[in-house]
Amino acid sequence: VARLHRRGASPAIPEGEDRLLLWLRRRLGESLIGDDAAVLPAGGPFAVTVDSQVEGIHYLPGLDPACVARRLLAVNLSDLAAMGASPVYGFLALTAPLDYDRRRFFRALLAGCARYRLRLAGGDLARSPSAACMATLTLVGRKRRSARWLRRSGAASGHSLWLGGTAGESAAGRLLIAAGARWERGRVTLPDGTATASGSVSLAAAARRAVRRHLCPQPQLELGSWLARQTAGAAMDVSDGLSRDLPRLCRESGVGACVEADCLPLAADFNALCAALGADALDLAIHGGEDYVLLFTLPAAIEVPARFACHRIGMITSQLRISITNAAPGGASTRDLPSGGWDHLAD
Amino acid sequence: VARLHRRGASPAIPEGEDRLLLWLRRRLGESLIGDDAAVLPAGGPFAVTVDSQVEGIHYLPGLDPACVARRLLAVNLSDLAAMGASPVYGFLALTAPLDYDRRRFFRALLAGCARYRLRLAGGDLARSPSAACMATLTLVGRKRRSARWLRRSGAASGHSLWLGGTAGESAAGRLLIAAGARWERGRVTLPDGTATASGSVSLAAAARRAVRRHLCPQPQLELGSWLARQTAGAAMDVSDGLSRDLPRLCRESGVGACVEADCLPLAADFNALCAALGADALDLAIHGGEDYVLLFTLPAAIEVPARFACHRIGMITSQLRISITNAAPGGASTRDLPSGGWDHLAD
Fold first, then answer.
1. Are A164 and A264 in contact (CB under 8 A)?
2. Which stretches of chain A drop beneath a pLDDT of 70?
3. ipTM of the predicted structure?
């Protein structure tokens, strides 16, 4: 344990931490960094969310620090989008080995902050005792004056159930990465000799999109902001999979839901991609997770503008059951939505 | 990488995460937890701080989760104390191995939150890819209406320089822990056969106090609140050692400082304890760090009330040099304050 032995040992310890902080402050312009805590101006109410990205859990070891930073920011912004909030401030805790390229990480993070008009206002730097990097981001968001907060508890019987984009593509990307696909400086390479690399051009393109979708999800802040101006409805983001997140939304609202399997939106060439990966497309769409699209409900009369590319996937019921319906030649068959998805604390 | 392989694999994944969250929500009473982000009421301005405790870096592997939680809370509260802020909300990101006793951790954390009237309002749970536990706490604080924020930049030439308590005791505790001292359910055991265990009763008591001071520092929230009602002065907390933190305060204020070595407050029996540990008492006091007492400046005319047990340790100068003065038989000798202390990113 370095900290236990190193203090005061050397009269000329290199200024690693202070130098990095100075470098950072130059890039932040007029900065909130420099005191023991950042002072945020009065205002609010505020939405605060915290999310981590852990090497070896959320992504494979060796991922480009720039990609880690972008993903960390995106999954956190997705939480603010699910609240209908606009990002205002960010606080980063970064625990990484000594030789980690922190400046590359920060450059990408700051570029993302600029894009979303978010101010990095503080944080904490620590060394990792292992080779693994661990980053935790706290975001503070605000809502517009005329808007409401989106809550998981806002669903009511008769609401339509919507999904903000396709499901399962991120999970396919995860399978591709496990099989050897890599993201490097914006380019995706597919493992040689696999069906996705040697198959059709459109299959390879679908595979590349899936890897990108997995590593660089797009937070739906504009959709969240539109939803927050509607009169009713619940929302959350799909991070752990529809089969885990939909029950959470229903529990908070005291309702049930019926999902129409045929309405689940899938990415272009998704069935072919799943076939090449030996995966079941519906399974990935239901249990996959990390889609980072909004799952939301709206009174049946409200249509979502086409520009948001959302899909109605079912409806909210007063009966507490959560079911999934398949159209079949002999009539629709309905069963309980199988449980699954991602549990952060399960084996 | 478990996440890459496990999704949808089993139809009956145990509800580890959701069950822990339900358990937690029962204990939180009317809770802010349950949405993608916590909504904090309007107000402010707010002070926000983020700090981590990493097993193997900030403490030895195997430390009682209750002690980790208390320490995490204390070091973060110390940052709010340094701003003159009162804690309001906390957000926890906990990354730990599957068999980590999270409930023990949370029980201690919630007891601490209750003590300091702080509300746990959200967080994130993840599995650790290694045996190491990593906890990051974000705290939101508020200041009283009649008070100002304490800043590092508030020091002016002629101010007295003060320390909120003794220096170096925490570092002595760290040395004792490295030598085998342990904290278990509130009791400190000293390693058999060492000078501290076999020496005098008062030496053993000093050693136990040092271990406790290291593991369970006491944030100086009341002192911070008193300082925030004074008309002038800078403040910060000593976390990385006087030799590293005083230059930071001086840099932010554009001033220098002269420390009187003989005025540095030391714990009872500290010299004897250092002798038994083979350590230099002044070295520990200057470079030790993790004291979590406030380092602050005040106009020379202002005295700190005795109940805070603060010590005047020097003065702020317009000359940018940071020096330390020793009284000596032939007259005082002055030298540059040696650099040292803790750098989170140094070898």
1. no
2. 1-15, 17-18, 28-34, 341-347
3. 0.84
Interface test with chain A among B6, B30, B31, B50, by most A beta carbons within 10 Å: B50
Contact A152 B98 (CB under 8 A): no
Q: What is the pLDDT of residues A284-297, one digit of tens each?
A: 999 999 999 999 99
Whether B205 and chain A come into contact, CB under 8 Å, resolves to no
Is B7 within 8 Å of A171 when comparing Cβ atoms?
yes
| pLDDT number for residue B30 | 61
Tens digits of residue pLDDT in B2-57: 333 333 333 233 347 667 777 777 776 666 666 777 777 777 788 999 999 999 88
What are A47-89's pLDDT values in tens digits?
Answer: 999 999 999 889 999 899 999 999 999 999 999 999 999 999 9
DSSP state of B159: -
The partner residue sitting opposite B122, judged by closest CB among A4, A50, A341, is A50
| Minimal CA separation from A263 to chain B, in Å | 20
Place of tokens 């399960």: A346
Distance (Å, rounded) from C-alpha B239 to C-alpha B294? 9
